[in-house]
C-alpha cells in the first residue's frame, strides 16, 4: 500500500464522522437540531483561533462563533429563549472586546487583501528567488 500525504487522511475521517453523525441522528440517538449550523459555527470559531492564533481580532471573533454555535444548540435542544440567547451573546462580545484592548494581546496581522499589490509581488519574487537558490544546478 502506498503511503499518502499526512493530510490525505482528512477526507476519509470527515466522511466517517459525517456518516456516523447522520446515522446517529436518524436513529434518534442524537438530538434533532440543526447540526450543520451548530457545527459550522463552532468549526469556524476554532479555525479562526487555530489559523490566526490569539490576536486582537481573533480573541473576539473565534469565541463569538463558538458561543453562537453553543447557544444555538441550547436554544434548539434546551429551549433557551432567544430573548436570553441574544443578550448573553452581547455580554460575551462586550467582555471579549474589553479583553482585546489588553496590551498583552498582540495586534492582528495584516490580511492578504489589506496588502498592496507591490508588497504581494515583492513577496512572490522573494519566494521564487529562494526556490532558485535551493534547487540543484546542472
Give a quick set of tags describing it.
138 residues; mainly alpha; 5 helices; 0% strand; flat
Describe the structure.
With 138 residues, the chain is mainly α. Helices cover 67% and strands 0% of the residues. The protein contains five helices and no strands. Helix 3 (58-77) packs antiparallel against helix 4. The radius of gyration is 22 Å and the shape is flat. The mean pLDDT is 85.
Class per helix and strand makeup:
mainly alpha
Largest sheet: none
Order of helices and strands: HHHHH
Shape: flat
Residue share in helix: 55-70%
Helices and strands in order:
Layout: H1 10-26, H2 35-52, H3 58-77, H4 82-100, H5 117-134
Helix pairs in contact: 2-3, 3-4
Q: Summed up, what is this model?
A:
The protein is mainly alpha-helical and 138 residues long. The protein is 67% helix and 0% strand.
Amino acid at each position: 500500500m502506498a503511503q499518502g500525504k499526512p493530510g490525505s487522511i482528512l477526507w476519509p475521517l470527515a466522511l466517517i464522522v459525517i456518516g456516523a453523525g447522520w446515522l446517529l441522528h436518524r436513529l434518534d440517538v442524537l438530538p434533532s437540531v440543526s447540526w450543520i449550523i451548530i457545527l459550522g459555527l463552532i468549526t469556524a470559531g476554532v479555525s479562526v483561533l487555530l489559523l490566526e492564533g490569539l490576536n486582537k481580532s481573533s480573541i473576539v471573533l473565534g469565541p463569538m462563533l463558538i458561543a453562537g454555535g453553543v447557544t444555538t444548540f441550547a436554544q434548539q435542544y434546551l429551549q433557551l429563549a432567544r430573548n436570553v440567547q441574544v443578550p448573553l451573546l452581547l455580554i460575551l462580545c462586550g467582555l471579549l472586546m474589553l479583553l482585546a484592548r489588553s496590551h498583552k494581546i498582540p495586534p492582528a496581522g495584516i490580511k492578504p487583501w489589506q496588502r498592496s499589490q507591490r508588497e504581494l509581488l515583492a513577496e512572490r519574487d522573494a519566494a521564487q528567488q529562494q526556490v532558485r537558490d535551493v534547487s540543484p544546478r546542472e
